[in-house]
Structures are given as structure tokens and as C-alpha cells.
Amino acid sequence: MRQPMRHALSATLAACVLALSGCATSGAPATAVETRSTQELLDASTPADWRTPDPANLLYMDLAGGRVVIELAPAFAPEHVANIRTLARGGFWNGLTLYRSQDNFVVQFGDITEEGVPGKPIGSARAKLPAEFDRASAGLAFHALPDADGWSAQAGFVDGFPAARDDRKGAGRTWLAHCYGTLGAGRDMAPDSSNGTELYIVTGQSPRQLDRNITTVGRVLQGMDLLSVLPRGTGPLGFYEDPKQRTPIRRIRLASEVPANERTPLQVLRTDTPLFDAVVESRRNRRDDWYVRPAGHIDLCNISVPVRTPPAG
Question: Which of 46, 56, 78, 206 is deepest in the core (most CB within 10 A)?
């Protein structure tokens, strides 16, 4: 019970600093503490509260309806990410399709072929990779949540990615959580049967049962609205029965390979700051007029990390 109390005090102090108001520091927040909405907290942010993703870790998926921006996570799946970069540079996904949309689950894209029909060449990319379901916790700046997690010993964030870890028996393993917008590498029965050519994006209720059973390689920063509205496939597991129902992919490129004037400028709120703690607290205990009582708890996958277009000037 002590950790949540410490976090509540820490969040209260952070809110006090942001609100520039006095607060009690003896364990319980003073009744005069000013509270702010998530938007008010973000409006009070400083440039240091935001980070600009590395263009070498960004994928642009261009569809007829617009662009989906995906941030890759080489710290968690370095071999898959390296292969995905190679595939993107070779134009592997250009002209392929989103061929699956399963209700309340995922959309999937890549090179779907009929049985016995050769697939698209993968060029210099590797056909075989090891499973990268989790990694050693050492070397990761894990920003933990005080809230209990039903799928791990502890949940939190690593550089903006929702993650979980288990260090209870000295195992020291951390992994990316299957939250809305997570990008994963589809596999067959064998754990090491993924190579990054077939990818899926979570569009439904967070399927955390997949954690540590499949390699997760990133998350969508912008463009989920283009994916979540795709017509649901009527075939088994949401596959489109008619190829005409598939959504064409114009191209998928690394942002680092795109001219600067054609890139999508984005900033992501840092998840290792007092401001982020205050933002999480504003979602954990909603104090909007509509809410009758605060929840006192928040699930990892219910925390949306804010993304914005950099302000002018």
C-alpha cells in the first residue's frame, strides 16, 4: 500500500508545481490544491516535456485516405526492426494490401498469397529471425505505474512505449504490452517463425494474452483512425474473402528516407517526467464535472501518450 500513497503524494506535488499553488506535504493533499484537466496540463507543458522521434525509427504507411505514422522499438526487437528497415528500403510493402480486419482485434498487412503461389521477394532482408518476445530489464529506463497490472508484476513505460516487466525471481525481463495501436510481427506455430514481412496492428480491446507470445516491434503514433474504420473481414479471423475488399498500400517508407519537406512533423510527450505523472493522474482520477467519483485506478493500456504537431516558432 505504501507505493500508491507515495505516488499520490508525488503526483500531487507535481500538480502543485504545475498549478503554482501551495500544497500540504504531510501525506494527504490539502483541500485547496488546484487540479487541472489533461488538456490544461498539456497547455502548460514546456519544450523539454516533449521529444522528437528519430526518423530512422519511423515508418510512413501511405494509404489512399492518408498517412499512418509508426514508431519502431529497436530496444525491444532489434533484429526484427533491422529487417523491417531493410524491407522498407527495398519497397517490399509498396503495392501490397491490408488483407485482414478482425473485429475488436487487429488489422494485418503484408504479402498474402494463395497456397503454392510464390510470395514477393524480400531482397536482402533475412528470411529467418529469432523470437524477440521480451528482453533483459537491465539498461532500460522503466517508468513504473503504481497501479496493479493483471498481466505482469509491474507495468509502465519505456521511452513512450507501454511495457511490463517481471523481476520477482531475478529473471529481470521486460516486454512491450499489447495495447491499442501496438505493431506486432505475425508468426506461425513456431515461436521463431516471424521475420517482419507480415505485420499487424491492434485495433480493438487490448489483447494482453499475446504478451510474450509474439514479437512486438512498435506502435502507431498517428493514423489509427484510418485503420480502425476499415470494413471488417467476413472470412475466418477477419480475412477478406474477396481480394477487392483489401485496402491497397501505396507505399511504406522510413521517414529517414523521405525528403524533409515531405515528412510528418510530430512530437511525443516524454513518459519520464513529473508532467507525465500529472497527466496520468488526471486520467486515473477524473475530476470533470460529469464524474461522480474518481476511479482511483488506471490500466496501462488506457493511458494514451499524447502526440502533437510541433508548435510554430
Answer: 206
For Cα atoms 236, 240, 201, give the angle at the middle one, nearest 5 degrees: 85
Total residue length of the chain: 313
Indicate if the pLDDT at residue 85 is higher than 80. Answer: yes
- CATH homologous superfamily for 55-265? Cyclophilin-like (2.40.100.10)
CA distance 106 to 110: 13
Residues 273-277 have a mean pLDDT of 97
Question: Which residues of the chain form CATH 2.40.100.10?
Answer: 55-265
State pLDDT tens for residues 23-57. Answer: 333 343 433 334 788 999 999 999 999 999 999 99
Per DSSP, the three-state class of 58 is strand
Residues 6 or more apart whose CB falls under 8 angstroms from that of 164 comprise: 149, 151, 152, 153, 154, 155, 156, 174, 175, 177, 211, 300
Q: What is the pTM of this model?
A: 0.88
